[in-house]
Amino acid sequence: MKKAITLALVFGLILTSYAQKKKRRGDDFSVEQKTELALKEMTLRLDLSERQQNKIRPILAKKISKRMEFKKQHKKRRKEATKLSKEERYERKMAHLDSKIAFKNSMKEILNSKQYERFEKMNGRRAHKMKRKMKMKKRKRHEKQMNAPERA
Question: Which pTM does this prediction carry?
């Protein structure tokens, strides 16, 4: 009897812990706070001078605010369950790539060759990590769809 009660309690605790809404790391920071954190991290990894930090700060702030705005729009669109047309997706992708190119060019102007090489290496690792995460997410979503009961 004791074992059954203990087992039920443990099972109940596990279920309630999974039911909690997970809050993503960094969602509660402002643009300025996120900018400063990113700048400090870059300073540690790239050994930036004070002058370089002052040049990079507004570029990072602009990039982070755009990302936050995109996230808000994406959440809103998901709630409304609307999808973008081909043209809209193309325009959005082009704008994203243009901003990436501009960011990369501005970083190339600010950093010296050794720092820029490290910066590229950092971004390569981050991109690889994100690609792997997205692949796993896609696989889980596919498995979930395959295991879901069919609707009549």
Answer: 0.67
SS (H, E, C) the chain: CHHHHHHHHHHHHHHHHHHCCCCCCCCCCCHHHHHHHHHHHHHHHHCCCHHHHHHHHHHHHHHHHHHHHHHHHHHHHHHHCCCCCHHHHHHHHHHHHHHHHHHHHHHHHHCCHHHHHHHHHHHHHHHHHHHHHHHHHHHHHHHHHHHCCCCC
Residue 46, Cβ neighbours under 10 Å: how many?
A: 21
> CB–CB of 2/10 below 8 Å?
no
For helices 86-110 and 113-147, give the axis angle rounded to 10 degrees: 150
Give the pLDDT confidence of 7-54 residue by residue, as tens digits.
666 666 676 666 555 666 656 888 999 999 999 999 999 999 999 999
Whether 141 contacts 68, CB under 8 Å = no
